[in-house]
Amino acid sequence: MNEAITEARTEPGTLYLSATPIGNLEDMTYRSVRILGEAGLIAAEDTRHTRKLLAHYDIHTPLTSYHEHNKLTKGPELIEYLLGGGNLVCVSDAGLPGIADPGSHLAGLAVQAGIRVTPLPGANAALSALICSGLDTTVFTFVGFLPRTTKKRRETLENVKEHRETLIFYEAPHHLRGTLEELAAALGGDRPAVAAREITKKFEEFRRGTLLELQTYFAQQEPRGEFVLLVAGNDGSRQAAPDALAGLGPVELVERLQAAGQDRKAAMREAAQRLGISRRDVYQACLAAEK
Fold first, then answer.
1. Is 203 helix (H, G, I), strand (E, B) or coil?
2. Rounded to a whole number, what is the largest CA-CA distance in the chain?
């Protein structure tokens, strides 16, 4: 009698998407700490940053790098690891992976491969800012970081300017002034808004006012820390303010941008973007005016 040979099949592992602190290291859940210690591998956006978190909780699980620039090659490798039975935790530098970072790409690959994907909930900058903003929390739209090019940014703002729900944006400090200017021009300077920075950290701040008031404040104060910008939805009574810088030449435009608080280099860069010309042309025009 021929003996039947049954080949053992390995069950796929689980992909955990773990929140990490957005500032305060104490904002980790007991479950996240346990799973991070038990998993076979952690995929981190920045391994140097995540090592500090793991050291704080005495976690020694191996780390591998997974970020926006290697996701197309590294993603399939991580899926193979999961299909081989290993459990993997994906983390971003701060907050929930998949929100404005490549964790969503890995989750999509895992779902397509039939791998279990489960969250380890925790800190999130957008929702933390929203619940403290004083703006409507019943319905909201998360926009995240605006596109890099002026054309794409304006298209995005054009698409959301009539939305009645609260709008949530992320922004880095060195782009904050320009973004506030664009928001005021596209959405209306009288829109109630909140600039939240350094959430859960020592210098946490919620600056409330209209977009125009926030623009004026940060023209005088150096923006510091990562920002969440929240803007009230369009209630039907507000119209977008005209762009006060429209129609200006390169020299006048640079002067106005500098008066609003930008340094000369940043003002020339934005002037070139607004006018659709090279930075060299802007520079030459300013040089000629000085002479």
1. coil
2. 101
pLDDT tens digits for 135-193?
999 999 999 999 988 889 989 999 999 999 999 999 999 999 999 999 998 999 899 99
Number of helices (H) and strands (E), helices first, in the chain? 11, 10
Torsion of the alpha carbons at 177, 182, 187 and 191, rounded to the nearest 10: 10
**CB–CB of 160/186 below 8 Å?**
no
Buried/exposed code over 229-266 (b: 16+ C-beta within 10 A; e: otherwise):
bbbbbbeeebebbeeebeebebbebbbebeebbbeeeb
3-state secondary structure of 267: helix
The tokens of 192 are what?
């109630």
**32 φ, ψ to 5°?**
-60, -45
Here the tokens at position 112 are: 């397509």
For the stretch 20-54, pLDDT in tens is: 999 999 999 999 999 999 999 999 999 999 999 99
Query: What CATH topology corresponds to 14-123?
Result: Cobalt-precorrin-4 Transmethylase; domain 1 (3.40.1010)
Structural contact between residues 133 and 230, judged by C-beta atoms closer than 8 angstroms? yes
> Is 80 exceeded by the pLDDT of residue 6?
no
| CATH number belonging to domain 126-231 | 3.30.950.10
Q: Are 260 and 184 in contact (CB under 8 A)?
A: no
β-partners of residue 67 are none
CB 245 within 8 A of CB 171: no
Burial 33-71 (b: 16+ CB within 10 A, else e): bebbeebebbbbbbeeebeebbeeeebeeebeebbeeeb
Domain boundaries, the chain: 14-123, 126-231, 250-290
